[in-house]
Amino acid sequence: MPQNSAAEVASDPERERLTPRTVATVGVAGWGRMGASMGQFLVRAGWSVIGTDPSAEARDAMVASGARSVGSPEQVAAEADLVLVVVVDDAQVRQVVSGQGGLLESARPGTVIAVCASVRPDTCAQLATQAAGTGVLLIDVGLVGGERGAEQGALKLYCGGDDRAIEACRPAFSAFAIDVCSIGGIGAGQVGKAVNNLLLWACLRADVEALRLGKALGVEPGKLRAFLAVGSGANRPLTDWGLHRLRWPAKDLEVSLGLADDVGLDLPLMRSLPALMDELTAADLEALR
Q1: Is the pLDDT assigned to residue 287 strictly greater than 60?
Q2: What does pLDDT average to over the chain?
Q3: What angle do CA 142, 147, 150 make, to 5 degrees?
Q4: Model confidence pLDDT, tens digit, residues 162-181
Q5: Alpha helices in the chain (DSSP H)
Q6: Where are the domains of the chain?
Q7: Checking CA distances to 97, which of 221, 254, 275, 288 falls within 20 to 30 Å?
Q8: If DSSP codes are grouped into helix, strand and coil, which group holds residue 123?
Q9: How much of the chain, in percent, has pLDDT values that exceed 90?
């Protein structure tokens, strides 16, 4: 089992004494596809936003959107009450949070760090324990809805960690999300997202094969989808047909299947998905409109 489980971190007496700050300034560490959309909605909603990104192009876009750009996560944390960490993987999250020039070097007591990247639950648990030692609360926030959800300000957030910290962040989260769900202890948000994404890609691949069969038997996919949408085979990817950009299945599946390996769980159907998803393109989906 992963070290520093959600239950162990959630019951840490030192962490339970921490009180989250009232959020007035929001920091964004990582102004990429997801972070930029989230940051822009925060600015539009009237929040004071400060951000950082290693890319000069991203920093220019940040300033153009109305956010303030600084040179490091440490500078972000010196001013922000809530920091959204929207980077790529576990290594980047660790560097941003606890590395040299990271958030924990300057974050004030009660600051909330929200890990919004898709990472391992035990990474979040370990960092939450480290953050608690400096008086900082760290929660994990699984972003569900993808780039399209971020661009529409309609993400669903699967949150794990201190309920008080999640509630303190809820007003800011509402700028770019339509649902904020508290799932459990630290790491639970990542588990929820991993399970959600397994179902997403499994449904999408099953939809492709089913629609290909219908088309081969003479029924046009568009007409068939209209009837399937009210049948027992209805599913969200089928309803949103043609909108999926297929950027993330490989990463999502790697994370989810890695977690299954950690607990010794065999998922034979899901283990067939990486190769099946790898061969799909957006053109394949378009061909089944």
Answers
A1: yes
A2: 92
A3: 70
A4: 999 999 999 999 999 999 99
A5: 6-10, 13-16, 33-44, 56-65, 73-77, 90-98, 121-132, 146-151, 163-173, 188-216, 221-228, 236-239, 249-262, 268-271, 273-278, 282-286
A6: 6-186, 192-286
A7: 254
A8: helix
A9: 88
Q: Which residues contact 221 (CB under 8 A, 6 or more apart)?
A: 211, 214, 215, 288, 289
Q: Which residues are CB-contacts of 173 (< 8 A; sequence separation ≥ 6)? A: 141, 157, 180
Token pair belonging to 63? 């300033």
The CATH number that domain 6-186 falls under is: 3.40.50.720
Q: Give the Cα separation of 247 and 130 in Å (integer).
A: 32
Per-residue pLDDT for 7 more than 50?
Answer: no
Q: Choose among 137, 121, 141, 117: nearest CA to 129.
A: 137
Residue 35's pLDDT is 98
What is the mean pLDDT of the segment spanning 131-152? 96
One of 3.40.50.150, 1.10.1040.10, 3.40.50.10420, 2.30.30.140 is the CATH number of 192-286, namely 1.10.1040.10
What token pair was written down for 124?
């979040």
Amino acid at 21: R
What φ, ψ does residue 177 adopt, rounded to 5°? -135, 150
Phi, psi at 207, each rounded to 5°: -60, -45
- Bridge partners (DSSP) of residue 29 are 52, 85
